[in-house]
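Quick one: structure tokens for this chain, please?
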Amino acid sequence: MINVGQMNQLEVMKEADFGWFLDGKDYGSILLTKKYAPEGVKVGDSIDVFLYFDSDNQIAATTSKPVAQVGEWGMMTIEGVNSIGAFASWGIKEKDLLIPFSEQRGRLVVGQNILVYVYTDKASGRIVGTTKFNKWLDNVPAVYTTNQQVDLIIAERSELGYKAIVNGEHWGMIFQSDVFGKLFVGKRLKGFVKQVREDGKIDLRLQKIGTAKMDDLSESILSLLEKKGGFLPLSDKSTPEAIFTAFKTSKGTFKKTIGGLFKQGKITIDKDGIRLVSEDA
């Protein structure tokens, strides 16, 4: 099945002076210009290409990969604005992505970096972008369990914290009290469900809750100690930034976890870091 607006694997059917014709199935032959043809390509090869509509509304192929395909979010820069809307660079050099005025939460300006959702407009058949995410999220019930790991995209900052897109399907909130490390719009990271409220709203954390969080961190610390020859230059005196860089956790959680490992006799805590206790000791 051919999907315009997404990566497809198509067979090379014919060579021409200006490029290669690919088998587009029901869409017929699709041209891939020599400029984007992989080196050494020949008839009969199958190659990965992105399909989009060119300025003449014809299907075109490129081996360039977009920042976001249809059904995905991506950070893009506004390159131009006219009477129709704004145009964002999305990794396809031949054509910027149109964000109609009706799909803008606020008027976009040249040079602005924004998070965009890419979709196919049913009325026109065009591939367009939007900064209005509500109609694409929370369309199915939020069925999550506490401490369930989820994929997050930071979408918006507010006085309460950060709004995030959860598994590409729901809105969630990371409250300021649960924020550590550097967060910014467009950042992708793993998170955990804190709770799903009765009204369906999702509270998120960047760490697991309770002992499960500490158990996972204990395993990560011991594993890294083994890889590093039994010593890490991190301790309860280290900066929050250094701890977050190594383990993506808060200093408070790190201190509790190494304290537990110390009590279990698995590590020693020295002035310059932590050391793995040899099983033979």
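The two ends are 62 Å apart (CA to CA).
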